[in-house]
Amino acid sequence: MKRLVLVLFALLLSCLGETAVAQQNPVAGLPWQVGPVTVKLGTHATLNVPDGYAFLDAAGTRSLREIMHDPPSNGDQYTLAPKPIKWIALFSYQDTGYVKDDEKLDPDAILQSYRDGTTEANKQRRERGWDELNVIGWYAQPLYDSQIKSLTWSLLVENTGNHQRAVNYDTRLLGRHGVMGVTVVSAPDNLAAAITSFKSTLSGFQFAPGESYAEYRPGDRVAEYGLAALITGGALAVAAKKGLFTVIGSFLIAAWKFVLAGFVALSAWVKNLFKKKQSTQ
C-alpha cells in the first residue's frame, strides 16, 4: 500500500477523460478493458466491470507503475476507474487464511490505537525531518456487513506542517482462504460520491468457486487475527511480539507519507482540470 497514492496520482495525470491528452500519453496505450466486461482478479475472484468503467489487469497495472517510475508491489494489483476518472480503486488479494468474523469491533479503541501508533511514528518522522501527522478521526467508522462478509472504514489524517488532509476508503471482502482488499482514493471533497460510485460496482464482484467465505471447511488455514487487525494493517496480530504501538507506528510511517503527498497533488490536479474545462466552455 505504501505506493498506492503515487500510482493513483500518476494514473489521474494521464487524464483518460481528456481524449486529446490521452492520445499523447503512454498510459493510453495500456491494455485497458472497457466495460461492460467480466475480468479476473487473479485466480481468486471475478469482477463484472460495468459500462462507464475501465479496468487494468495485473500486467497492465505493473506497466502503469513502470511508466510512472513506481516500483512494483509484492503482489498483483488490479485497477478499476470510472470514465472520466474521478477516483480509482486498487484490488489486491491477501493470503491471510480464513478470518473469523465473530469479533466485535470497537471503533474508539481502534482509533486510539491508530493515534498512539501515530505518536510513535511521529518520533521517527521528526528524526527524518518529515512533517508530523495527526489522526483527526473516522470519516466513516468501521462497519462489518455479515451478510456479504464485507468490512469497510475510512480514516482522516492531517499533515501538521501544511495542514493538508488525506482520506481514503478501504474495503475488505472476506473469502475462504484470504481477503480481497480494495482501496478507493479520491479528492476529499469527492469521496462521498466516489464511495457511492464504487459500491455500485461491488454487485459484480464474486469469489471463484470454492473460494467464498461460506465454503469454509474444517481444516482450512485460519488467520491468527480477526477483523480489527485487518483495519490496522495486521498490526494487532503481531502486537504481542513487537509491541502494539511500535508495529502500528511502523505501518503508519510507511503508508501515510505517500497518502498525504498524493492527495496534495491530486487535489491540485482536480482543481486545475475543472478550471481548464470551465475556460474552454
TrEMBL record:
Keywords: Membrane, Signal, Transmembrane, Transmembrane helix
Residues passing through the membrane, by range: 244-270
Signal peptide feature range: 1-22
InterPro entries: DUF2167_membr
Coiled-coil residue windows: none
Keyword Transmembrane helix: yes
Superkingdom as given in the UniProt entry: Bacteria
Pfam families: DUF2167 (PF09935)
Keyword set includes Membrane: yes
Protein name: DUF2167 domain-containing protein
Organism, scientific name: Dyella dinghuensis
